[in-house]
Design a protein that fits this description.
Layout lengths: L9 H11 L4 H20 L1 H5 L2 H5 L4 E10 L5 E12 L5 E7 L5 H18 L4 E7 L8 H15 L8 E4 L6 H15 L19 H19 L8 E5 L3 H12 L3 E7 L2 E4 L6 H13 L7 H4 L4 E4 L10 E4 L8 H9 L4 E3 L8 H9 L3 E3 L1 H4 L1 H16 L5 H23 E2 L5 E2 L1 H20 L3
Parallel strand pairs: 3-4, 3-5, 6-7, 6-10, 10-11, 11-12
Antiparallel strand pairs: 1-2, 2-4, 7-8, 8-9, 13-14
Helix pairs in contact: 1-2, 2-5, 2-17, 5-15, 5-17, 6-7, 8-9, 8-15, 8-16, 9-10, 12-13, 15-16, 16-17
Bound molecules: NADPH dihydro-nicotinamide-adenine-dinucleotide phosphate.
Length: 454
């Protein structure tokens, strides 16, 4: 029986994970990726193996699943499933986003909650890992329907969250509007004003720089990776995918730091602007995507020197830096090969799990600087943590103050990745994936060891 075996090797360990989580492909893949980095480290530190820390870490503290009943505009009763996966609260109250999307299932939320545990640990802030959401599809719903759904969802979720227990935030399908409805309902039901949800509006407890944090943080991290190699971001050609929140602010910060952004995309295709998407052109992208809710292809109407590539992703262009900032599984092995053939130096994941496992392996084999999502996009949750601190202290920090703290957090994450990710006899190559996994693991594992068998 796997359950009763002290696994000496990764095959035995993964056999147990697969047996306990049948059919949960995303979760199993996420565990495998971490286990591959962490297993050799555990072998050198038997106290973790003896206490079965990795087995405990791959089992969520608890999974909450509930019915969400709401009424649509025609008066029909609708039923969805709501979830919250409280993965690990060893180092702080649970923290992680809520996703409203028809594809939401337990495997995806367990994968995201597991990853969040490591990401939050890397930030150095006292935050445990969680994720939640519903298979509710917000697309095509009226504003009133969204409100009723959020209120129904929160009516059940409120039993399990709180500022010292679990602090949800947004994710796909849960933006400023949904956060406001969720927070409003929580406040009403509990008759208390606490920072139990982050991503709030500025007038009711939100933090400056939260919107920009993920994209900015990803660029700060990329800059540090290049500097570690005595190189710099200034003058580099950067290919970015996506044109949503993460992509826009990654582009903005890359421009500010002297890089040339040559691509952006959406689900219809990508634009290539060889002369660079400058500040003014980026404003056009923001206008198109955030205000007009139009397609990125319209960019070439304003800038005919650029080209639009329908149904394609931007990884075929010549770039020094690639930043996948759109969605999961958007960079495969053949695209990784094209990027390497074109001389890419660094790849930083702004999105969650955008790079396929075999593409990651290819980058590492070719000694490309590869920043995994749990390190590169941790700036978002870090500023959410800072929002919690401001709420508890009843203060609002200035833009500069939050930005400085964000920079310091990204620098600490980078230092820790270098510390545990150095490879080659002379330590000249940093495997950031390995570094992030081990650094994230240690803090959670040591806390679990200290607590004893709980
Ligand atoms: P948005 O919804 O703001 O933007 C998503 C972007 O990706 C849009 O440009 C969208 O295009 C594009 N996109 C969506 N699906 C596809 C697809 N199948 N193929 C190509 N492009 C696609 O999301 P965010 O920018 O907030 O998030 C992006 C990623 O970053 C997600 O993986 C998210 O989990 C992750 N992330 C976000 C954080 C944050 O703070 N926002 C924090 C940490 C991680 P279209 O307009 O056509 O839909």
């Amino acid at each position: 029986m796997y359950e009763d075996t002290y696994c000496e090797d990764i095959t035995c360990f993964m056999g147990g994970v697969e047996k306990r989580n049948p059919g949960e492909a995303e979760f199993i893949a996420a565990v495998r990726e971490v286990a591959e980095s962490v297993f050799p480290y555990i072998e050198e530190h038997p106290q973790y193996r003896k206490a079965r820390i990795l087995e405990r870490m791959t089992e969520p503290d608890r999974i909450i699943s509930f019915r969400v009943t709401w009424e649509d505009d025609e008066g029909n009763i609708r039923v969805n499933r709501g979830f919250r996966v409280q993965f690990n609260n060893s180092i702080g109250p649970y923290k992680g986003g809520l996703r409203f999307h028809p594809t939401v299932n337990l495997s995806i939320l367990k994968f995201l909650g597991f990853e969040q545990t490591f990401k939050n640990s890397l930030t150095g802030l006292p935050m445990g890992g969680a994720k939640g959401g519903s298979n509710f599809n917000p697309k095509g719903k009226s504003d009133r329907e969204i409100m009723r759904f959020c209120q129904a969802y929160m009516t059940e979720l409120q039993h399990y969250i709180g500022e010292n227990t679990d602090v949800p935030a947004g994710d796909i399908g849960v933006g400023a509007r949904e956060i406001s409805y969720l927070f409003g309902q929580y406040k009403r039901l509990r008759n208390e004003w606490t920072g139990t949800i982050t991503g709030k509006g500025l007038s009711y407890g939100g933090s400056l720089i939260r919107k920009e944090a993920t994209g900015y943080g990803c660029v700060y991290f990329t800059k540090l990776m290049l500097e570690e190699r005595q190189d710099s971001l200034a003058g580099k050609r950067v290919a970015i995918s996506g044109s949503g929140n993460v992509a826009i602010y990654a582009a903005k910060k890359a421009l500010e730091l002297g890089a040339t952004v040559v691509t952006m995309s959406d689900s219809s295709g990508f634009i290539y602007d060889e002369s660079g998407i400058n500040e003014e052109k980026l404003e056009t992208v923001i206008q198109l995507k955030e205000v007009e809710r139009a397609r990125i292809s319209k960019y070439v109407e304003s800038y005919p020197e650029a080209t639009f590539h329908e149904g394609q992703r931007p990884w075929s262009v010549k770039a020094d830096v690639a930043m996948p900032c759109a969605t999961q599984n958007e960079l495969n092995l053949s695209e990784a090969k094209a990027l390497v053939a074109n001389g890419v130096l660094a790849v930083a994941e702004g999105a969650n799990m955008p790079t396929d496992a075999d593409a990651v392996e290819y980058f590492l084999e070719h000694k490309i600087l590869f920043a995994p999502a749990k390190a590169a996009n941790a700036g978002g949750v870090a500023v959410s943590g800072l929002e919690q601190s401001q709420n508890s202290l009843r203060v609002s920090w200035s833009r500069e103050e939050v930005d400085d703290r964000l920079k310091a957090i990204m620098a600490d994450i980078h230092t820790n990745c270098v510390k545990y990710g150095k490879e080659d006899a002379d330590g000249s190559f940093v495997n950031y994936l390995k570094g992030a996994n081990i650094a994230g693991f240690i803090k959670v594992a040591d806390s679990m060891l200290a607590y004893g068998a709980v």
